[in-house]
Amino acid sequence: PEPMSAAQRLAQLPYILRATQGSGIIYCTTTNDCLRVAEWLQKKGFPVKPYYAGVEETTGERREDLEDALLGNRVKALVASVALGMGFDKPDLEFIVHYQYPGSIISYYQQIGRAGRGIDRANIVLMHGYEDEDIQNYFIETAFPKPEHVDETLEALQLGGTLTLNELLEEVNVRYSLMQNILRHLEIEGVVMKQKRGYSLVPGRNAPTFEHWLKVTEQRRRELAQMQAYLKHTGCLMHFIAQALDAPPPAEPCGRCQNCRRRRPTFVPP
Length: 270
Description:
five-stranded parallel beta sheet
């Protein structure tokens, strides 16, 4: 499908929800989009709720309660980020809509695989916008902290001993969230440990070489390129997904995807 503006995608969503009997999930890649899409659909009269990692703090609604509402068909859809994890299972989930494309075929397959587990037919709709590539590249580029910021953090701990997060921020010119990210990765690498007073270096451990971080970043870029190739694929989409996952492709084209049916998407307003 061709990329669409936010206005075009928002205009299609009410049509999709009216055309399906059951409930489903609308995936967005950012918290702001979860809120924006949910608010738009609520104004159109649909019982939907946003769902993302910090939803309890910003809306006061517990994630467990939101999941139960979808399980009990008390909402038409959850407008969700990837925070709606693999543990969620609703066998009669009737549709999955992607407001933006995810960063990999694996993520896409896992998400659409939640639909139709206990029913004969489910509908999958993949939208994407002009902003999608920029969002995914931002996620890739910010997944790991920059080496120079890591080096400055380690130097501050070397000189200062045990330092609190706020004390580190006085020594390293980064945002609060970025310092949290630096410390989290250094803890994973076993270079820094958190104590009651603050953070300190683990004796005898060397600074990370960053080689692993670079490899993961390169892998994510390849996964993003594969997801973008899927959008342009003209053959059977299930064949593409199977090959991308290194699984044996079906013997015959699926006959159900948009490309196999050689027709315009089902949920395009007339």
